Amino acid sequence: MLTAMAVWGRFSSGVAGAALILDIAVGAASCLLAPLLLWRPVAVSLALDVLAALSPAATTAASMGALQVAQRRRFPVAAGVGAVGIAAHVVQGLWRPSSGISFGWWLLLVSLGYGAMVGWGALARARRELLESLRERARRAEAEQGRRVAEARMLERTRIAREMHDVLAHRLSLLATYAGALEYRPDAPPEKLSQAAGVVRAGVHQALDELREVILLLRTDDAGEEDRPQPVLDDVPRLVAESRDAGGQVELRDETVEASALPAAAGRTAYRVVQEGLTNARKHAAGRPVRVVLEGRPGTRLVIDIRNPLPADGAAPLAPGSGTGLVGLTERVRLAGGRLDHQVTAGEFRLHASIPWPA
């Protein structure tokens, strides 16, 4: 429409003959080239600048070309295309000067027009890139949030699984020991059977209480978890006494100095190491003696060494295991900054842990 108006204006101003035919041809060519700006903005814009040098009928399309380049290309490219457009109009003004306005003012208006087109396009491009970057950042933030939620869920599930194993496996292995005694000693005196049945009943109640604590762990936050008392290194003798009451032969040699000075987290880890060692001994070497050695003092490392001989006849374990206890325990010790090793040598199973003990 603007190109047609420009041609009509040239005709109304008295342009005729070959000049008018040139204006009509240039106007038609610019109308045909304008849609191609969407696919090849730089090349088409330069072609329109060449047409603008021949006739004012292409001025509008050339200006729109500069705007398209500024919107879709970097600013140096857009500025270069704008400079070519101004140079093309300088050629046009020298070849076919406009009547009623001086060349200087006309060139100033052309320069201001191209500058406005380039600036407008660059501003639109910058705004579009800003919006796209904000959308991309929002997508990344959403993806990162989803990843963090998934990792938090996995860590929580791992923590809960470890807690359930550490708390319940020990208790249930004790119950299995007592139940095995009832099964294989039916000729025991009634008072012994009654005592064993009472111990099993009490153990079941304790297991239920500990299971309830684990369920509470699922329903409370970290603050609630810290409010509940957690086992520490000083609770190891009680743990050994429970194993002895169940008929286990456990020898405890405690050579630690100032055990109460051990940080709570490290003490809880040490307690779980001993607990897992005694549980494994009951499962895989029932009736065999277990030797537990604790060594360490502030400023060194707490060393836990648990050994028990394995059955020579390859008897099946008293209670089946999943094989994940030592894996979870290794991770727990590693998180405490320590190291856990386990090996079987000369018919003996050894569990060895080393945990830092700050001064």
UniProtKB/TrEMBL annotation:
**Which CDD domains would you find in this protein's record?**
HATPase_UhpB-NarQ-NarX-like (cd16917)
In terms of Pfam families, this protein maps to: HisKA_3 (PF07730)
Residues crossing the lipid bilayer are: 75-95, 101-123
As its record notes, the protein acts as a catalyst of: ATP + protein L-histidine = ADP + protein N-phospho-L-histidine
Stated EC number for the protein is: 2.7.13.3
The Signal transduction histidine kinase subgroup 3 dimerisation and phosphoacceptor domain covers which part of the protein? 156-222
Q: Does the keyword Cytoplasm apply?
A: no
Which keywords label this protein? ATP-binding, Kinase, Membrane, Nucleotide-binding, Phosphoprotein, Transferase, Transmembrane, Transmembrane helix, Two-component regulatory system
Q: GO molecular-function annotation terms?
A: ATP binding; phosphorelay sensor kinase activity; protein dimerization activity
User: What is one cellular component GO term in this UniProt entry?
Assistant: membrane
Keyword Phosphoprotein attached: yes
Q: What is this protein called?
A: histidine kinase
Recorded superkingdom: Bacteria
